[in-house]
Specification:
There is one protein chain. The protein has 320 residues and is an alpha/beta fold. A 9-stranded mixed beta sheet has the order 7-5-6-4-1-2-3-8-9, sandwiched between helices. It is 49% helix and 18% strand. It folds into 2 domains: 205 residues, Alpha-Beta Complex (Spore Coat Polysaccharide Biosynthesis Protein SpsA, Chain A), CATH 3.90.550.10; 70 residues.
Length: 320
């Protein structure tokens, strides 16, 4: 772009043909009323429904709406990375297309960042009443664990709805993370930050694209990207297993000495199961880290951009 806008909105989109029109209906009047230059970077993460066609129609009527399309589905964090890397704005706000995070908080985020000179403004969920009992409690456990790893710099209940300054975006772009988890990377920067509290709403349409399996994957990526604690856990499990074996050996010796040596198939069976389980856990943890080393050595791009409407023509570019 010849002149960089003040504000960029980065919106990962995947199969949102029902929700996207409603999101645009709320977002466009809000941004037009801010009296600042802006762009909306819609990152299509390889949608298989009518979303790509719908995005083209939106762009025809809304020049500030920019389309970045992946050649294949690469995941939410990859779409977020592409949007952050390609956004031009001095301030960049990331938001999903399902309206669970209200866009009406964007002006408050921008005003807070400009008035107080902040590089990061987190959108913090003050109420998760729309979530299920299971999701509320698993999310609470996730944030508790992440604060243990990253420290109190990570706000509790802060997801991917946030504002970043150009300095913060450039710092993230310079980091050689192969599988970035921005919920942890952004607090880790330690840049001046603030918070805006909001009430999380229900998804406006469609079904969630973050089932339990993806939530578990995010938690696993978060832990293994930011801590070697699981490897230390494997060490402690091994030591515990060794101590249990010593205790069983002492018990067996004493039983033999007092003449009460009866067939102890149950204790032997339990001991074998315990030792086998510990070994499998340790091997699994080591395999997870080795797999990440293997992926990093391969240095394959996290995504392929097949189209960016900000460029003159389609081309294939890579995202590192």
């Amino acid at each position: 772009m010849s002149t960089a806008p003040l504000l960029s909105i980065v919106m990962p989109i995947y199969n949102e043909q029902e929700a996207l029109p409603l999101t645009v209906e709320r977002l466009r009047p809000l941004l037009d009323g801010l009296d600042v230059t802006y762009e909306v970077v819609g990152v299509d993460d390889g949608s298989t429904d009518a979303t790509p066609v719908l995005m083209r129609k939106i762009r025809q009527d809304w020049p500030e709406f920019r389309i970045v399309r992946f050649a294949r589905n690469s995941g939410h964090q990859a779409a977020l990375s592409a949007g952050l890397h390609r956004a031009f704005g001095d301030y960049v706000v990331s938001i999903d297309a399902d309206l669970q995070d209200p866009p009406e908080k964007i002006p408050e985020m921008l005003a807070l960042a400009r008035e107080q000179g902040l590089d990061i403004v987190y959108g913090v969920r003050g109420d998760r009443g729309t979530d299920t009992f299971f999701k509320r409690h698993t999310a609470g456990a996730y944030y508790w664990l992440m604060r243990k790893l990253v420290g109190k710099r990570m706000p509790s209940q802060a997801g991917d709805y946030r504002l970043l300054s150009r300095a913060a975006v450039d710092a993230l772009k310079a980091m050689p993370e192969h599988q970035p988890v921005y919920r942890l990377l952004v607090p880790w920067l330690g840049f001046p930050s603030g918070e805006v509290v909001y009430v999380r709403e229900e998804r406006v349409a469609g079904s969630t694209h973050y089932p339990l399996s993806k939530m578990v994957r995010l938690a696993l990526d978060s832990v293994t990207n930011f801590s070697a604690s699981p490897l230390r856990l494997a060490t402690w499990l091994g030591l515990t297993s060794f101590l249990v074996c010593i205790a069983l050996a002492v018990y067996t010796t004493v039983a033999y000495a007092v003449g009460s040596t009866v067939p102890g198939w149950s204790s032997l069976f339990i001991g074998m199961l315990f030792i086998g389980a510990v070994q499998l856990v340790c091997v699994g943890l080591l395999g997870e880290y080795v797999g990440r080393i293997y992926s990093a050595v391969q240095a394959r791009p996290a995504y392929f951009v097949g189209y960016d409407s900000a460029e003159e023509q389609d081309r294939y570019g890579t995202g590192e």
